[in-house]
Predict the structure.
Amino acid sequence: MSANGPSLPLPVRIAGTGSYLPERVLSNGELEKMVETSDEWIAARTGIRERRIAAEGEFTSHMASEAARRALEQSGVPASEIELIIVATITPDTLTPATACYVQQQIGALRAVAFDVSAACSGFLYAMELARHAVGAGAFRNALIVGAEKLSAFVDWSDRNTCVLFGDGAGAAVLVPSTNGGGRILATTLGTDGAQAELLNIPGGGSACPAPPGGAAPRPAVLAMQGREVFKHAVNAMRQAAIDGIAAAGLDIGDIDLIIPHQANLRIIDAIVERLDFRRENVFINLDRYGNTSAAAVAIALDEANRQGRVAPGDRILLVAFGAGLTWASAVVEW
Ligand code: UT7
């Protein structure tokens, strides 16, 4: 279930990162007025204090494009020279075309081939793996990868089991060949278990739930999750993905300088870090401010770690994620 094929002709590095969070902050206190919940429950069970909510008329593609512009600016690669755009999202602007097509237009990357990947919270690392192979094989000179979500549009705001968990936002990275011996992506692992697809899904809006004949309202597309079951799988799968990724990179856990995990639940992160016997202060956490932004979470955290100076050249970073599918993924990056 892991994929770390043969070594590529060209090593690939991350040349720039960017992120975008919508302005509107939704606090736990405000949620107390919407559903039967409390700041104490949400903070104790998840670690989340607040999340961002996209404005009306602000779509996944708009957030993706803003994060992309910031990553491009840092990388020094102009949008017009980008050859490949992969957007990871489960909350596309439209079922078709892909959100990546809107991003291509919005940022003016008119030469780029653009498509989406749907791998939920692991999506950004799935996109990284695809882009790494595309650039590392020499098929594309560079790639822009984005994780972006407007989960607020797919949450049932009357369901306290889910509505307190999710938020909106986007993160991006530009991948280029590592020609000067600088940083590079050392290894990645990916995994999928479709047998557990029912644990976390958005059933409405797909071909399995077409609009009923006679003009009746179609089933709304809202997120459903069996939280406790997902929690157990998340801890086991992310722990194993971390171990596999580090081994594939030829490293030990002691060689890792920073872990950037998927930001779903602080208790999940704590359980993994404890099982890996890793230093908690070297784990990047921002879920208190943004909640779970699915495919955007690792991408936003990577950009914040980068811009806050939490990573230095030569540092080894472990990115690890888990989500609906079920899917999981890890990447070990030498900065
Ligand atoms: O991003 C992709 C992967 N997603 C995840 O990794 C999420 C994984 N799951 C989780 O993070 C946790 O399971 C949750 C945060 C979703 C839930 O925490 P939990 O400790 O597993 O709680 P629970 O679902 O077992 O519910 C415990 C109690 C229940 O009440 P009873 O049955 O014990 O009376 C729930 O009804 O807490 C209740 N509850 C709430 N109470 C106040 C559930 N949601 C809320 C709420 N406020 N928002």
Observations:
- The two ends are 26 Å apart (CA to CA).
- DSSP finds ten helices and 13 strands in the chain.
